[in-house]
Design goal:
The complex is a heterodimer. Chain A is an all-beta fold. Helix content of chain A is 0%, strand content 54%. Chain A is globular, with a radius of gyration of 13 Å. Chain B is mainly β. In chain B, the strands form two sheets. In chain B, strands 2, 4, 5, 9, 10 and 11 form a six-stranded mixed beta sheet that branches. Chain B has a five-stranded antiparallel beta sheet with strand order 1-3-8-7-6, with no helix packed on it. In chain B, a hairpin with a 4-residue loop joins strand 7 and strand 8. The chains are: A mainly beta, B mainly beta.
C-alpha cells in the first residue's frame, strides 16, 4: 500500500501560460500532502505543505500567488504554476502522509515541467 | 532549519562489495527517512527510521538519535543499486533533505 500518483509525468508549456499538476494518494487517505521542487543534480526543496480543506503553508521564498495549491479532498492535491516562465522549469514531486502514528511520507513519481 | 550532511557525496563500487552511507543532522528529530531515487526520478522509500535499527534484504539502517546520525548499509551490491540515496530528517511531518550520495555499482 501507500501509492502516490502524479499527472502529468511530463509537460511542456509556453511562457506565460498556466500548468496544473495533480497528486493523488491511490490507496490511503492523506492527512497532509507536500510539494517539492528538484533542480538537476540537486536535492529536493520543500515548497509547501497542504492539509485537506485548509490553506497551504508555503516555505520562505516560495511565491504563493505563483504556485497555487488546492487540497480538495483527502486523496487529491493540485499545484498550479501560474504565468510560467523558463526559470520555473524543474522537476516537481509531491508526497503524502497517511493518518496514523507515523510521520512517514510517500512520494509520487514526479512531473517534469519545461517552459519554453 | 535543520542541517543535513550526507557522506560520501559519490561512491563507486564493484558488484558484490559492501558500503556504508552516513547522514549527520544538526538538531533533534522525530522523523528520518532514507530514499533511493531511481534514474526516472522516483523516490523509493527504503526506511522510516527515527531511531533504532532495521533490515530489509541486503539493506539495513541504524539511527542513533542522541548522537544525531544515521547509517545506511548496502551489502553485496548489485548494479540495480545504482542511483542517488537521500537522507531526509525533520520534526513531525516537515522533512529537510540532504544533498544525497550518488552510488555507481560496476559489473
Amino acid at each position: 500500500g501507500a501509492v502516490v500518483s502524479q499527472h502529468p509525468s511530463r509537460v511542456i508549456c509556453k511562457s506565460g501560460t498556466s500548468v496544473k499538476i495533480e497528486c493523488r494518494s491511490l490507496d490511503f487517505q492523506a492527512t497532509t500532502m507536500f510539494w517539492y521542487r528538484q533542480f538537476p543534480k540537486q536535492s529536493l526543496m520543500l515548497m509547501a505543505t497542504s492539509n485537506e480543506g485548509s490553506k497551504a503553508t508555503y516555505e520562505q521564498g516560495v511565491e504563493k500567488d505563483k504556485f497555487l495549491i488546492n487540497h480538495a479532498s483527502l486523496t487529491l492535491s493540485t499545484l498550479t504554476v501560474t504565468s510560467a516562465h523558463p526559470e520555473d522549469s524543474s522537476f516537481y514531486i509531491c508526497s503524502a502522509s497517511r493518518r496514523g502514528t507515523s510521520y512517514e511520507q510517500y512520494f509520487g513519481p514526479g512531473t517534469r515541467l519545461t517552459v519554453t | 532549519g535543520i542541517q543535513v550532511e550526507q557522506s560520501p557525496p559519490d561512491l563507486i563500487l564493484q558488484e558484490g562489495a559492501n558500503s556504508t552511507l552516513r547522514c549527520n543532522f544538526s538538531d533533534s528529530v522525530n522523523n528520518l527517512q532514507w530514499f533511493h531515487q531511481n534514474p526516472w526520478g522516483q523516490l523509493i522509500n527504503l526506511f522510516y527510521i527515527p531511531s533504532g535499527t532495521k533490515q530489509n534484504g541486503r539493506l539495513s539502517a541504524t539511527t542513533v538519535a542522541t548522537e544525531r546520525y544515521s547509517l545506511l548499509y548496502i551489502s553485496s551490491s548489485q548494479t540495480t543499486d545504482s542511483g542517488v540515496y537521500f537522507c531526509a530528517v525533520g520534526v513531525d511531518y516537515k522533512l529537510s533533505f540532504g544533498a544525497g550520495t550518488t552510488v555507481t555499482v560496476r559489473a
